[in-house]
Every structure is written in C-alpha cells, then in structure tokens.
Amino acid sequence: MAVIFGDNQYGKAEIRLVHVTRDRDRHRIKDLSVSTALRGDFAAAHLVGDNSHIVATDTQKNTVYAFAKEHGVGEIEDFALRLGRHFVGSFAWVTGAKISIEEYPWERIVVDGAEHPHAFCRAGGGTRTTAVTVEGGQEARAWVVSGVTDLVVLKSTGSEFTGFPRDRYTTLAETTDRILATAVTARWRYASTDVDWAVAHADVRRILLGAFAAKHSLALQQTLYHMGEQVLQAHPEVAEIRMSMPNKHHFLVDLTPFGLGNDGEVYHAADRPYGLIEGQVTRDDAPEAGQAWRAIPGF
Amino acid sequence: MAVIFGDNQYGKAEIRLVHVTRDRDRHRIKDLSVSTALRGDFAAAHLVGDNSHIVATDTQKNTVYAFAKEHGVGEIEDFALRLGRHFVGSFAWVTGAKISIEEYPWERIVVDGAEHPHAFCRAGGGTRTTAVTVEGGQEARAWVVSGVTDLVVLKSTGSEFTGFPRDRYTTLAETTDRILATAVTARWRYASTDVDWAVAHADVRRILLGAFAAKHSLALQQTLYHMGEQVLQAHPEVAEIRMSMPNKHHFLVDLTPFGLGNDGEVYHAADRPYGLIEGQVTRDDAPEAGQAWRAIPGF
Amino acid sequence: MAVIFGDNQYGKAEIRLVHVTRDRDRHRIKDLSVSTALRGDFAAAHLVGDNSHIVATDTQKNTVYAFAKEHGVGEIEDFALRLGRHFVGSFAWVTGAKISIEEYPWERIVVDGAEHPHAFCRAGGGTRTTAVTVEGGQEARAWVVSGVTDLVVLKSTGSEFTGFPRDRYTTLAETTDRILATAVTARWRYASTDVDWAVAHADVRRILLGAFAAKHSLALQQTLYHMGEQVLQAHPEVAEIRMSMPNKHHFLVDLTPFGLGNDGEVYHAADRPYGLIEGQVTRDDAPEAGQAWRAIPGF
Amino acid sequence: MAVIFGDNQYGKAEIRLVHVTRDRDRHRIKDLSVSTALRGDFAAAHLVGDNSHIVATDTQKNTVYAFAKEHGVGEIEDFALRLGRHFVGSFAWVTGAKISIEEYPWERIVVDGAEHPHAFCRAGGGTRTTAVTVEGGQEARAWVVSGVTDLVVLKSTGSEFTGFPRDRYTTLAETTDRILATAVTARWRYASTDVDWAVAHADVRRILLGAFAAKHSLALQQTLYHMGEQVLQAHPEVAEIRMSMPNKHHFLVDLTPFGLGNDGEVYHAADRPYGLIEGQVTRDDAPEAGQAWRAIPGF
Predict the structure, then answer these.
(1) What pTM was estimated for this model as a whole?
(2) Model ipTM value
(3) Which member of C8, C13, C273 has the closest CB to residue A15?
(4) Which CATH class, in words, describes the domain spanning C151-291?
C-alpha cells in the first residue's frame, strides 16, 4: 500500500466587504461575507512545499475587494460568478472555484416619516446566501445555489404531531395543537445562470414564508416538503431545493402543581436538544447537479 | 483581621418564556428571557450550608411561568415589577429583587397581502430590555431601567473624525467622510413607575434611531450625547440614559496597488479591536438612582 | 415535469449526556453531545403528514439516555455503533442511521498533590468526535469516522511562505519566518470496526500534534499533508484522513512609525478573514467509503 | 430642568496581541486581549464634536503594541499598570484609565517525550484576567483586580441541596447527591501593587480548584464562600474576592418509563435557565476599593 494525496481545496474565508453605491446623497449598501475556495493542481505545495501554484489567499482577498471597485457588486450571484470565472480563467492549474457569499439585510432608518438617504438599521428575516461553483477553465461551466439562512419563524398554533410509532423508549404524548418553530436554512439550485437573481430570490423567500404560515402542519416534515413544493411549482428556473429545519421545541409548562391550567399559553423555549429535519424537493427533469453542492454543509 | 462575608445575590438566569395570547384565531406572542436575582439575609447558606432562607432558583423559575399564566405578561416592565414585588413581599428575609428581561421582536408573516393571524418571523432592530429593582419588603420602592440592545445601525456618510491630539503613537489619518457603524446598547431610567411603558419605549427607540441618522457626526461621542439629549428633551419621564456604543470600524480598502481609486466605496468591516464609547446623559433634577443600576453591566 | 420528493433524513441533535461511572468513590465521567439522524422510508410524513414511520426524535433522545444506563457508554465509537444498529435493526423502514458524538475533555482536579476522585476541571486540547454510519437492517454494514475538532495549535517560528505566484492583485510579501496557527479539525475513517478505539484515537491525536510541531512548514498545505501522512503510515487501521485547517493569521505589527523594530516579537492576531486549507490523505488500497462521509461538513 | 452630560469613558476593546520572547530557539508566548478605557475631560467632544482631548482609540491600540516591544509584556498586571500610568501621565485631561486584559493559556506540545521549544497547544482551565485602574495624573493611585474566567469544574458527587423553603411555587425535590457544576468567574482585589503576580495568581487558582473539589457542598453558596475564605486566609495580599458561579444544572434522567433505575449515572446537562450565584468575601481591614471595581460586570 502507499499513502496518496487526495481531494483538497483552499481559499480565504469570511472576507467582510461593505460596498457603498452613491447616487448623489442617496446611498445603497451591500454588506457581505465572501469566501473563496479553489481546486486544481496543488500537489507540489502539499508534497514538497512548492508554492508556485498557490494563489495566495491574501491575493484572493485582494481580488474580492478590487472587483467590488472595478465591476461593482450588484446581485451576489453575479458577483460570485464574476469572481469564480476570474480564478479559473486566470490560472491554468486552477480547475474549479467555489465562491460563497452571505448578504446581511439592512433597512433604511425612517426620520420624520421619510427614509433617510444614508442611514440604515440591521434588519431581521434571515441572511441571503449564494454558493457558486465554476469548473473548467476557458469554457467554464457554472452552478448557482442560492438560499437563505437564519430565517426564524414560529406558528403559535396550526401544528399537530400524532400517529407516530411507539416503542419501549417512547414517552412523548400526541398533540393536536403545539407551537411550531424553526430557523429555516434553504438552498435552491438554479437550472441556469440566466436568472433575474433579485426577483427570483425575493419571491422564493416570500413563498417559503407563506407556505410555512398557511400550511396546517401534521409534521415538520410535511411543512418542509410543502414549502419546497410550492417553490418548485412557482419557479421553473429552480431545479431543486434543500432545506434544513431544526425543530425548536417549545414545551407547554406543566402548571398543575400550582393549581393552574395551561391551554396553550405558557411555553418553555428549549435550546438543546432539538429535532433536525432535512429534506430535498426536486424535479424529475432537473439538469444534473454536477459540483453544485460540493462543500455545502449537507445531509 | 477576620474574613467576612460580603455582598451577594442569587437567582435564576435566562428563563426562556414564550407566552401566547389567543384572541380567537388571532394570536399575540411574547418571547422573553427572564432573569431573577434576590438579595437579603442569605448568610447561613454561605457560612454553614443552611438553606432555610434559600428560595430555590427552581422555585423562582416556576414563579415566572406561573405568573405568566395567573396575571398574563403584558409589558415587560409590568411583568418584572409584579415578580419583583412578589419576591420581596413573600419572604421576610428577601430585601431586594432585580428582575431583568429581554424581549425578542417578531413580526407577522404576510400571506397574500394580509397579516397571518398566528405565524411570525423574527424581526431585526434590536432587543427590548428592562431591569427592575424592588427594595424593601411591604413598602417596597422600585426602579425601572428599560432599554434596547443589539440595535445595529450604520451611516455610509455624514461622519468625520478630525482634530484629535497626535502623540508619538498616533498614526491615524484625519477623515471628513467615513462609515459610522455601531450596535447601540441604551438603558434609560424612568423617574417613576407610572409610565405607559409600550408607548414610551417605542418613542425612545424612534428618537435614538432618528438622532443617529440625522446628526452630522464629528465624533461618535457627539452622536452618543446627541441621542441621549434628544431622548431627555422629549421624555420628561426619563431621568437619565446610559449608552454603550462600540465603534464598529469600517476601513477603506487601499486599492492603489491595483491602480484603482476608492472614493468611499469599498470597505473592510473589522471585528476586533473596536472602539467602545460609553456615556450618560441625565437631568439636573433627576430623582436619586438608588439601586437602579446595580448589577447592570456598566462603565 | 413533476415535483418529486428527494433525499432526506431527520433526528435529534445535540443530546447532552453526562454519564458517571462509580467505582466506589472514584468516579469516571463521560460528557457527550449526541446527535442522531435516520434515513429510510419517510415519504408519507412528507407528502401527507402520515407519521406512522416517524420514530419521534423524542424517542431517539430517550433511547440515547436509556442505552447509557442499560449498556453503559464506554468508547464513543462503541456507543454510536450500538445506537445506530439499534435504530436500523428495530424499525423495518429505517435503512440507515448516522450517530455523531462529541466528547468534551475533563481532567481530575489535584488536591494536595493527589488526584481528587470525583472532582474535575474542563481541559483543553480539542474535542474528540465520531460519526458512525450504519446501513442495511439485520445485516447492517457500519463505517466509523472519528476525529478531533478545536485542536488549537501555534508555532512561533519554523514556518515560511514564499514562491507563490504574483498577479495584478498580489501584494503579500514573502516571509521565511512567521507564526503558524490553526484550529485543527481532523476526521479519519477506520478501515474496520475492529479497532481499539481509545488507543487508536489517543495515538492519532499524538501524531497530529507531533507532526504539526516538528515539521518545518513551507506552506500550511505541506503541514496538513505531512500530518495526514504520518497518521496513515503509523496506523494501518486508518483508511483515510480529512483535515480542515483555518490559517489563523498573526500579522507582524509595523512599529516603524514609532521608531521601533519588530523582529518576530509583536503580532496582531486577526479573526477574519482567515485562510482555509482542506485536504485528504488516503491509501491506494483503502476500502470503499460508502456512506461514511455523508452529512459530515466537507470540502 | 436642564439636560446635563454625565459619566463617560471610552477606549479600544479587545486588542489581540500575541507576544513572542525568543530565548534562542526556545520561545515563550503571551496571548492577550487588551482593552483600554480612559476617563477625564471629554465634554467638548460630546457637546460640540471638538476632539482636541480625544486620544484616538487607534492611538491607544498603537500604544499597546509599541509598549509590548519597548518594555516587553511580562505579567499582565505589570503590563496593565504600565499602560494605565502612561495614559494618565501623558495627557493632562486624562484623569483615569482602566486596562483590562485576558490571557489565554497555552501549553507546550510534547514530541518524543520532550517539550517542543516553539510549538504550543491551547490549554483548558480558564482564562487569566486582570483589570487595573489608575487614577490621578503624576501621583497616580492604582488598583489591581485579577481573576480567572471560564474555569469550568464539576463534581460528580459530594453535593446536596436540602432544607430550602417551600411555597406554593416550589416543586423541586431535595437531594443529598447531585452533580455540582459551574464555570467560575473569580476576581480578587490586591491590597497593593507590590505583589509577585505570577506566584499569587497561580496559588489563588490552585486554592479555588482545591476548595471546590474538597468541600462537601450543602449549597453552591456554601462552596462559593468556602472558596473565597480559603483564598483570603492564605493570601494576606488579597483584600477581597468576588465570585460569579452559574449553577450548570445536570438533571438525573427519569428512566423509570423504560423499567430502569438511575442511581446517579445518567444526567441531562441543561443549558438554560441556570442558577446564578454571586458573592463577595472580604476582610474587616481591607483597604478602600476606590475605583477598583468600576466598569467590571458585577452584582
């Protein structure tokens, strides 16, 4: 037997870029965390410390900042595609690049009833993400997986959990009315790169929220599938969607020792453990995923 | 010399309570983290392990949940006052109680243009807080310090920093146009307990945001003072306000090595170190603070 | 086209189990976070909310605690195998289980020169992990991937970075003496389940630390490969190893404005961004990985 | 009434400094997070944005790095005193400085049975801290409060909790054998600045651990007081000690539904809520604390 060098990648993680677009005194901001990862022929660095193929991660960081100036940022999918194509197109030995971006939401501060032109407050409602994979040099192919994380949602009713199997270790009571709460991480793969990213993202997010809210839930699994199905039915440009949804348990507090009832009013919100429900909804005619999901935390 | 037992307190921290008010199918939720701390004669427990005065922290937790059912939650200031008065009124040896509450913001999910009656999404814009101190048994006095934390704001222009002294260790260049970003922690002490808590809190928060946005800033210190001054001028029921504001540095990236300018467009958002500006704005006729600020992280 | 239900799994995450073994007054403790994930035929729950196949995550949690009593814990690999085989063996529709465990290190407190029999202090040196996959019902196959995370190491010299390519965006200077610091996450797949887990784990960890320390580093990639190679050469029972190593940058502070040199003495430890180097070292005759790496954060 | 400018301070927080002392090829490292805070006449900055008194936080950061080179670091108490005296001695309007330092523990990696001269692994056992206050210009006074945080300890037996009062809201059962676990934050004030900091700190830490381990605990309050008392009895140079100890609850899992007993073997380690016990042990002849505790999170 022989020891051999296997799969590998490297890059710069969590490059914090804030980009300001100034339209007279009305500004727009993009607040991003950009991570780059390159694949290719890096064997010499690993085996003998020859760095002639190692595009420094510092150079990758510089490239992100310089591109923000040279080309602007725009939608994060476009920015990631531009960066990925640059890396695979500029270095013969770099055969793949994954550019992952998180975009943090801000809203304008309102002063005297009017939006302030350049003052902002961090908003809630989750973080927009994209993970773009580019492979193959001059005629590179590209895959775009966009998504949302930390989209924390809760229904105070309209959720049941009954009919599950009971074995020796089962103590959970059935319930026809519980709190359902989760922090949605959804990632969807676009079938092409010819998409109106901003419009598509906003609408997928809207559908996810609406489906979570409107669906009477018999299981978090059912809610998850319903959310994905609604997205795919409305968006032919989405090939598949993967969701990871922790079941953030809210336990009805037993108040009977105090002579009190508790008809769905007082809950203890638990941290750990939590259920973790993960699933994929796809199309029967989805184009191949290729390297799209590589290095994305998965299931 | 002799070793002596000094100051002390104990309680239950971070009791996670979610309370649902059901008005037919339209629900309201309160999502809280409640911490209790009692003061009084606990010497025997410390000196000889005699727990006859130690109201168990588990009992304190139960009381929080039971009170949520018996009396509802309402505004967090009222809930904290009720709990604090209970503890000092129920146990002769308990002479003081501090009830600290964080309230997490949620907004209703919109489905087909209408607010869903019982589905919610976690919002941004900071966490509402209160820290209520009750002292003195049957004729207890009470102080209320409410506030907001994690109110993350940013101005992309309208901020300068010039005219600071230069010594041997000074390298910072003066600037007349920078990003100003911070995460506001503000805590204000009410002059009485006869306040419309919800209205007052919402308006103080509105003023803080508006003052941050509107004030052309020559120093973060100036912005801080202006924010506090605006609050006190508008709210006679506020005796004083204390603010802690990290200067979340955004550094203009030097793009000259790449032959590029950078006219306030591309910034690196740094994590550490950060400036930390802390200050108090008060009134010349503010009533005494008493124990109001005890055990609140301060400066 | 039709929307179809794809890949999925679910389970209970971060079950916090502390197990005490009492040997008269000398105790041993195991402090674990256990996560379970099941695969199988769960389509009905997703499609129509029929939970008859959904082994409740609460039941999974109960099983973990009950097994700790019934069978003890022992080495985490054995505990995970026992749990995984239980789930695939007990429910006809469950075809796969992944049991992931983190074990937190404790050391005995020393009192008057002797180890206390039942008092402990949390130790450093990283967290021991395992991720066990069991597939296939009665004649289940199993894969064991053990590892270490948060193993934070630093060399104050013996690290260079030179000879990297320079393009338009390169500004980094070459260096022949820098601090090399990282937080090692290593995961290694055992070729079989017939291993002395405790002995193997301790020795792999020892080798990783020793290789990091002893190897003069021309690139973090070289250090990573060397660490893996040393493990594989010493441990035939290890089929492959994957490592993820952030380059935790320590920047030499420029003290020239203050008329001071800085010959490798004063460094700024940066948080973000950081380099991220990931690689695999394997054998040419390694048995197939099967499902071993599924759902493990990867590259 | 008039709005007035009150208390205030500002500085640079969490300056991450790693200092290397090279004794031929054997290196020593100090890994610190340093925070500075200045008090004095900063009214003009707050009121009108006049920064002529505002020693830039960037300058404060530079000073920390430059001092590490010019004077070395040594013990963190000495380093903090040196910095604090510099700030109050250099600027007429700066009347007070608080320098807070955290020092992270590292141990040498052992290779082939010998300590490696310049390779290190992050250790456990808590973080060493100091908070030094200097007041008053040329004839400045100074207070030193040193401590330890994140010292996580656990006893698997030797802890009881009985005899506590029972009211309507009490459900907790008494126990004569439970797990006692906490994360000690201790801060002790030295009576002078003429102390062998390293020796004193190591011994106080040793006593805290030993007292926690050896004391049969009837209440966490009793353990806390005992720990402090032991420190004061052994260290006349310590004027007082304050401790904050969360009661990290470990709940015995009820296994009776599974037909199993649980004789102190299987515990669920809970995150929140937790008890929080805080207390001070002092001397009857302790010198005045002055500003020593200002701005230290307290109780």
Answers:
(1) 0.98
(2) 0.97
(3) C273
(4) alpha beta
